[in-house]
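Attaching the record inline, Q. Sequence:
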Amino acid sequence: MSNTYIPFHQPSIGEEEIEAVKQVLASKWLTTGPVTHEFEAEFAAYIGCTHAIAVSSATAALQLAMDAIGLRPGDEVLLPTYTFTATAEVVTYFGAVPVLVDSTPEGFNMDPADAAGRITERSRAIVPVHIAGEPCNLEAIHALAKAPGLHVVEDAAHSLPAVYRGRRIGTISELTAFSFYATKTITTGEGGMLTTNNDDYARRARMMRLHGISGDAWKRYSKHGSWFYEVQEAGYKLNLTDLQSALGRAQLKKADEFCQRRRAIAERYLQAFGELEELQCPPIAEPDGEHSWHLFILRIRPELLALERGEFISQLGKLGIGTSVHFIPLHLHPFYKRTCGHRQYDFPHAEDAFRRCISLPIFPDMSESDVQRVINAVEHVVTQNRKVVLPVAS
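Structure, as predicted:
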């Protein structure tokens, strides 16, 4: 096999992105300004929502969402244990309590049945996370939220441009947070977007992302602005810059193209690995949705292999294949053990997925030979480590 290393992820940056950033540099307006506003308008049109608010990260978008719904100390927010810490940490910013929920059996996303048993009189919101870009069962989650009047805030860090029942993620719930981190489906290096159809939420989020200052504070230093401003609330510093937005606008134009390429790679993987009983392919979202394939999370079956997940990753690395693991469940981390009081085995489905999962390379710049190398490497590790099953004596 080739010695060339295939990284877990590599952003797809072309001349269009470089030229867009150069134009902002030449304009001498580097922070939040007209290019960011154009990015917001284009993103809202692409998603099909009323408002898109550009921010410094998906974490920032979730923080603004929690602020918009008026989260208070002591409130409880239901969210999956199988997610990145950002989903839960923003809840703690407000003195509220993350309530962890198990994954679906044989899947990664939040299990609505498990969530139903964790709702109390203090519950205020549910935050479904579309792991890897597979849409959650939003119908069940919204039904769960309706009777107690819970807010639904989607963590869509993986989900551009996923679809659920004919509607783009970002148009369905009250508030949705997207990520443009370096590894995401489109990137601004660091960055995010909050989408909503609620005018009041959008108005507050725009104010709170930039110190709680009224009006278009970014215009203060332009020829159309004014030196005068008023601080309406103790806000945050969560804005996105025009440099980042220029990169985002160029990437957004390629979002469909990028997604088509990731789907093509996923189809190759599904076909190849679906034939190996030692492996379990990820859920594909159909018939209720369209997967964004931000991640391809393969699961091994340790009972059929003579090695554990860590050694599987190590052997792929020796063959020049970069991988990652998504995710270490929150309840296994020291902070959430201390604050939530959970222990190992409290969330069996999430722990089973974590124990067996490997995220493979899936990015638009992968060549056909790169994809085949990944397939060959995985197949090689499997065939070299199959357990020998001895026949049962009659």
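The first helix runs from residue 15 to 27. The chain has a mean pLDDT of 95.

More tomorrow.
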